[in-house]
Design brief:
mainly alpha
């Protein structure tokens, strides 16, 4: 490796198909790198660790908030809080079902973060 102050002066030209270019650009973006840096690091055998998509993190935060609100309702009911006195058994079962659905939703988002799209599509039933 060169000195940190040394400027990169040598360039490599790599012809690619349009589809290959799109894939490389997308993967560089997912890794939070420029295309040049991405190709330089891949070419030297470095492991590329992608950054988590901001939208996926926001979705997980939203789902977490949903679980917190649902858990709060359930806690009020379990402590016989007067605000939940009108809740019947069917309402509580609906809250529990919604918690399970929300957990499934969170699992899907987490799976999309840790596994590339092509890999986990074959696993989803």
């Amino acid at each position: 490796m060169g000195d940190a102050k040394e400027k990169r002066r040598h360039h490599l030209r790599v012809p690619v198909l349009q589809e290959e270019r799109q894939v490389i650009e997308r993967q560089a973006k997912q890794a939070g790198m420029s295309v040049a840096r991405y190709l330089r690091e891949v070419g030297q055998g470095y492991q590329i660790n992608g950054i988590v998509d901001y939208e996926q993190v926001r979705e997980l935060a939203r789902i977490n908030g949903d679980l917190g609100r649902l858990g709060g309702l359930l806690k009020l009911w379990l402590t016989n809080d007067e605000r939940t006195a009108q809740f019947g058994e069917s309402t509580i079962h609906a809250v529990l079902d919604r918690i399970l659905d929300t957990q499934d939703e969170m699992s899907k988002v987490m799976l999309s973060i840790v596994m590339p799209r092509a890999d986990h599509d074959s696993f989803s039933g």
